[in-house]
């Protein structure tokens, strides 16, 4: 499975962005898709994950109510809609895929990774 993330950019606090992650590969639609982020000098952090069929999504507490994860399996694409952005949301955002529905918040359990897209939020 290959993953291609896009949609990052620079916005002011309170603004919004939509990140996309396109998956390719014969079985890519069967993978659960997550997003992580890594700010400079910090550990990689779980953002959200969505089940392969889009039925369930989990979010990190600090993202609940601001971020929405969805997927369009016809397009092999996962979307992370981010609103009410804060300067502390500044990071490189990575999409990742895993075949099982456990260890969702642990980056070590994800089998495939995209290249990352930079989000910068200014105050």
In summary, what is this structure?
The protein is mainly beta and 123 residues long. 0% of the residues lie in helices and 50% in strands.
Observed structural traits:
123 residues; mainly beta; seven-stranded mixed sheet; four-stranded antiparallel sheet
What does this structure look like?
By secondary structure, the protein is mostly beta strands. Helix content is 0%, strand content 50%. It contains no helices and eleven strands. The strands form two sheets. Strands 2, 4, 5, 6, 9, 10 and 11 form a seven-stranded mixed β-sheet that branches. Strands 1-3-8-7 form a four-stranded antiparallel β-sheet, with no helix packed on it. Strand 7 and strand 8 form a beta hairpin. The radius of gyration is 13 Å and the shape is globular. It starts with a strand and ends with a strand.
Count of individual beta strands: 11
**What sort of overall outline do the alpha carbons produce when their principal axes are compared?**
globular
Helices, by number, come to 0
Order of helices and strands: EEEEEEEEEEE
Q: What about the largest sheet? A: 7 strands, mixed
Derived from helix and strand composition plus strand pairing, the structural class reads mainly beta
Contiguous low-pLDDT stretches (5 residues minimum) are: none
* First-last Cα distance: 37 Å
Quaternary structure of the protein: single chain
Tell me what portion of residues adopts beta-strand conformation: over 45%
Rg, alpha carbons: 13 Å
Q: Summarize model confidence as the mean pLDDT.
A: 95
Blueprint of the fold:
Elements: E1 2-6, E2 9-12, E3 17-24, E4 32-38, E5 45-50, E6 57-59, E7 67-72, E8 77-82, E9 91-98, E10 112-113, E11 117-122
Parallel strand pairs: 2-11
Antiparallel strand pairs: 1-3, 3-8, 4-5, 4-9, 5-6, 7-8, 9-10, 9-11
